[in-house]
Amino acid sequence: MQPDSPLLKKEFIFGVATAAFQIEGASDVDGRVPSIWDTFCKEPGRVANGDDGSRACDNYFLWEEDLALVQDLGVDAYRFSIAWPRVITDTRGAINQAAIDHYRRQLNYLNERGIKPYVTLYHWDLPQYLQDRGGWLNRETAYAFAYYADVVSRAFGDQVVSYSTLNEPWCSAFLGYLHGIHAPGERNRKHAYQAAHHLLLAHGLALPKLRANAPLAEVGIVLNISPSDPIENSLADQNACALADMENRDLFLQPLLEGTYPEPVLNRHPDCVPLVLPGDMVLIQAGLDFIGLNYYTRNQVKAADGSAGYEVSPYRGTDATAMGWEIYPQGLTRTLQHLASHPRCPPLYVTENGMAADDQIRNGVVDDAVRVAYLQAHLNAAEDAIASGVDLRGYFAWSLLDNFEWAEGYDKRFGLFHVDYMSQQRTPKASAQALKQLMSLRRNR
Ligand code: FCB
């Protein structure tokens, strides 16, 4: 990184990210009720090795130790999520004070040390009692989310610097309802579209609550976008790419920025058009203070039979992470530029970026040189985006800790800190040292 890099300016926010279900454990402690992921983990064959989130990184108990790691890195911000099934514990909206107190202690810890809390309200842990009434297929879930957002933001107000309503609604809707990979594990495109609409509605209903209760906080949403490239330079594959981008990106982005769903997607799947009530789209397109982009890889796409008309090809090259995802930093620049090219695009953050590797402790050290190079390359890609005029405000590495990687269980390690799940010992990897060094370089400039 050049000494005059825009990333080294003090206004640029560096952070690390986590999510409640992936780290907290303590799934039945202090009044927490089950989430859809607790249920999903119990279904045979859903999660690798039959892993679950009941203990995870034990962060519910070890949070202070973990926040000390964040402080020691010297980053500006910590992005974490609040567990809805801890805070609101039944359909009548009972508020669990123990949960509010738990998160308040963390917010106090962060604010006292000048670390900015970036809070995500929904990182996939829907309370099971809502799933029992239809989950994201039930419009009432959107109102339940707005109530939960109201409760949280009343409690914490501007102690939170930045609220994200949803993390990656594409994953909740498409991995959860179309691909059967995430909870609740359905395979039904019509349901995926309806879930997408109710997720966006939940976001739209929550925005005014957050703004009223936390007038100084930034309010936004986090999207995962992987740019598509044709696997072959044929017209068919190029058209397939356009379909993929419209369904996976524009179905979420366009309603947020323009208040409409992309017509070609709806026309292609007339049976799947979601039920949208008058006024919904106005709520959904209410202005955002930021969009958070979670970027990991690109998709190589080919034309396919079937209603989707496209297929994402597994990456077969050598530059792959332990997830099998291609390492492709240029895609980050491109995606940021694409977002920023929209006249109504708000300022951007990279809210997640990182990679899984087969990290091992050898002689007390985890030498994750590939991750160090990955992070460096993606920071350079972010810098390129800024140089081309993108208003990028910050960058969060995924993740602070190795953690429960959803359907992949604990096998896939994304952390800057290695976690030994037996002893719950945290060990800094070389990537943690590299980030710490970068932060001290910036401070001492
Ligand atoms: C993202 C999720 C995050 C983590 C990373 C690897 O899709 O937001 O929780 O699992 O992928």
Task: Write a structural description.
The protein starts with 12 loop residues before the first strand and ends with a helix. The mean pLDDT is 98. It has an eight-stranded parallel barrel with strand order 1-2-3-4-5-7-10-11, surrounded by six helices. A three-stranded mixed beta sheet has the order 6-8-9. It has one domain (6-444): TIM Barrel, CATH 3.20.20. With 445 residues, the protein is α/β, with parallel strands linked by helices. The chain has helices at 20-23, 36-42, 59-73, 84-87, 97-112, 128-131, 139-156, 169-177, 189-213, 235-258, 263-268, 280-284, 330-340, 369-387, 430-443, and strands spanning 13-17, 77-81, 116-122, 162-167, 218-224, 228-230, 290-294, 299-303, 310-313, 348-352, 392-398, 417-420, 425-428. Residues 19, 22, 167-168, 171, 224, 294, 352, 398, 405-406, 414 line the site of beta-D-fucopyranose (FCB).
